[in-house]
Amino acid sequence: MTCRLRTAILLTLLATAPAVFAEAPTVDPRIQDVLTQLGKVKSIRAVQLSPDGRQLAWVVESNDKPSVQIANADGSHVRAADPSAKSGSCSQDEIAWARDSRHLAYISDCHGAERKDKTHASQIVLADAQGKTAPAVLTTLNGNAQALSWSSDGSRLAFLYVEGATRRASAVSAAKPASGEVGVDGLEVQRVATVAAAGSVPQMLTPAASYVYEFSWSPDGQRIVYVSAPAPGDNNWWIAKLYVQNAQANAAPTVLVDPGSVSGDLHGLQIALPRWSPDGSRIAFIGGLMSDQGSTGGDIYAVSASGGSPINLTPGISVSPAWLSWNSSQLLLVSQVRGGDSEVAEYRVDADKATQERVLFNLPAGIGDGSASMALSLSHDHQQMAFVQSSFAEAPEVHAGAVGTTAPKAVTTINAALKPAWGKAESVEWNNQGRHVQGWLLYPAGYDASKSYPMIVVVHGGPSAATIPRWPSVGFGAAPLSALGYFVLMPNPRGSFGQGELFVQANRKDFGYGDLRDTLAGVDAVEKKMPVDDKRLGLTGWSYGGFMSMFAPTQTQRFRAVVAGAGVSNWQSYYGENLIDQWMIPFFGKSVYDDPAVYAKSSAINYVKQIKTPMLIVVGDRDAECPAPQSFELWHALRAQGVPTSLVVYPNEGHHFVDPVHQRDVLQRALGWFEKYLPASK
Questions:
Q1: pTM for this structure?
Q2: What is the domain extent for residue 289?
Q3: Which residues pair with 356 in a beta bridge?
């Protein structure tokens, strides 16, 4: 049977699958206890420090409804941005302080506006942080908006806007059901738009055919710089260019950087996070192999705002910068991944290089603004900072304080009552084939050194990313496995952030081989020092981790149970099925049509007869990144060979699950699968 016909049959199976989703049967009550514990955490995001550094704002989610809260910079005097909004009945999100440090803009559906189709319409609202006047609506939106940002003079508010949007702008969101002429009909384009501070109809600044991913105002508010590509936006993030234009409608954009045509080490790679220097002369950005938008890591580059060749300011560094901000024309504040830690450092910037001057602090924890990993919020004078921090030991809280060599302390107690139900976390390191590798090890809850334990390896997604300690939420993850009595190893093998761009690029054209050897070497290293039973090893992961969970059992028989989430079983058929094929050429070197062999060598389906391991496979039916036919393909092959397997397809879910019922169910099934085939107690 041809690959094309086989794919058509799989798609037909998906189309005719039952629409009703059945929850997993009730299982071990310990699993229910873990799920209940995970469900108690309140997510915190969009943390913003006011320009004068005296106030904080953040979004906290309770009962699936986000709301905006305001407080003093030390966390005192917490109050709602809009006291009249009934908690839990509407949503508020995406905040931005006005330049006067008194007013706060955010997006809300709390004011009763409706779209033409009678659905709730979001509005951009301006609240008085002192509560002396009622929130004012600046504009009503007919679509989705995000990334609010004020011009330097405070006269305009810019944002990313998809007018008439039917879904969230993200490749990890559920894809639109295919209808009409694919790739032509119903394209949704994200553009930079503005509204006046006094309120107005949104005015589009960027071209109608240009999908914008990120943007930044120039210091004088007269121009914008942005990362953009032709629509469809889900697919073209990986080939986006850097543009600059006047901050006016119908202004002509100028290409500053085209990674597809530049020479040097940026050629064919990605760019992200453009930031103007304070004098407006240069633009710094991060460039690297990277992968999904928001999973950022690479080298720091700079280009003249008037054009020219980009310069790699940090070649050969052994960390992965993930976020940056200019403190002055000669100083950058950089948030970066070092090993599996979060780190904040200052870099001295010269004409052609940026040198790390000092590390402010290093944390075995995840930091960020709660929406973007590693992102920090700074006061206008760069003397104060704020972010959300969490680890395996501490639930998310807002941290704020002076920019210095001591990490800011928590100023909220939103999740302070939560205590981990899992074991302690420990950084582990080992060497393999001339490379130094780092990972994280979770001990079993109630660890007893006199006992022997099973261990489950959790491989991160990406491909380019890193496991950094963070408090888990309901959904796929490592901590619940520890709570049920497993050691859990989370390696950062070659291909991961944290050890520089050369380490990130070390698994190009080699998926599933070098990184698997690094991972197995990590298993060996842990077994030498901890009471792990090598006959009771499990494997799991999501996305790239899902691929590794499908592929590893074709190369080794060490794993006795596998749970593969949203994985890839056949890179050759995947190339023609997914909606994001642009990412593949930098990683594989050529398209599947030009070099099918490099795709075939990393495809589990080509070695499927080697798989003997019981495997649970889970996926969303509208996954644009790792389409469900990839899961069907492997499940079908395993079932035909008599390998114990189960496939669960979740309706209306994309690459990241959003339905709390589905999030809970997939974790419950994964825990139940390991409990069945790899019980923690013998």
A1: 0.93
A2: 205-361
A3: 347
